[in-house]
Amino acid sequence: MGLKDENNKAEESSEDPKRQGTLSRKNSHSSLCPTEDDEEDEDKKLELGPMIALKEQFEKDKDDESLMRWKEQLLGKVDLEEVGETPDPVVKILNLTIRSPDREDMVLTVPKDGKPTSKGPWFTLKEGSKYTLVFTFRVTNNIVSGLRYSNSVWKTGIKVYGRKEMLGTFSPQAEPYTHVMFEESTPSGMLVRGSYSVKSKFVDDDDKCYLENNYTFDIRKNWL
Length: 224
Description:
- By secondary structure, this protein is of the alpha+beta class.
- It is built from five helices and ten strands, in the order αααααββββββββββ.
- The chain has helices at 3-15, 29-32, 36-43, 54-60, 65-75; strands spanning 90-100, 103-109, 123-126, 130-140, 144-155, 158-170, 177-180, 184-185, 194-203, 209-220.
- The strands form two sheets. Strands 1, 2, 4, 7 and 8 form a five-stranded antiparallel beta sheet that branches. A five-stranded mixed beta sheet has the order 3-10-9-5-6, with no helix packed on it.
- The longest helix has 13 residues, at 3-15.
- Mean pLDDT is 78; it is low at 1-7 and 9-39.
- It comes from Brassica carinata.
- Belongs to the Rho GDI family.
- One of its GO terms (biological process) is Rho protein signal transduction.
């Protein structure tokens, strides 16, 4: 069916007296076909100005009360004690907590280099159990925009799982942030038991990576 047939259908339906009282809309040629301006916009790339240190932004407007109130509404309550002289945000992932209704919380300290020192699995999950990952992290120096988490899971060299989740945008502050992931369930059965390897990342809108965490975990018949 061509474009002309679609337009004829729209005209016929709008003139049908049996369908009076209903809304109809005839598509224009311009709504279906890209214009030269649209094509030019696609070729254009957004050019952002240089990033300015957050402290500098607050200092230059500190005498303007209305502007400072507007910035506070826009950026949230910023702890200036946690703001540095450089424009780059600093994000440190502190802890990973694994919550499950079947056992006490497991709180794991995330190493700075993302590599747990233990030679064995970092943690063990029980097959068929429900669990939730909770990350605790700290933001200093500047606002981090669009912080997101991704991970990929392999078993015997085959990728078996992957996920991505947006954490959000955060202002620098002394108190750590906590982000609770959605609840998941481990598979069950003899074939799913064993060791898994994981590669996870925390990156922002600029694709700056704050942590790459590589570790292994086990799925077993029971909790350890």
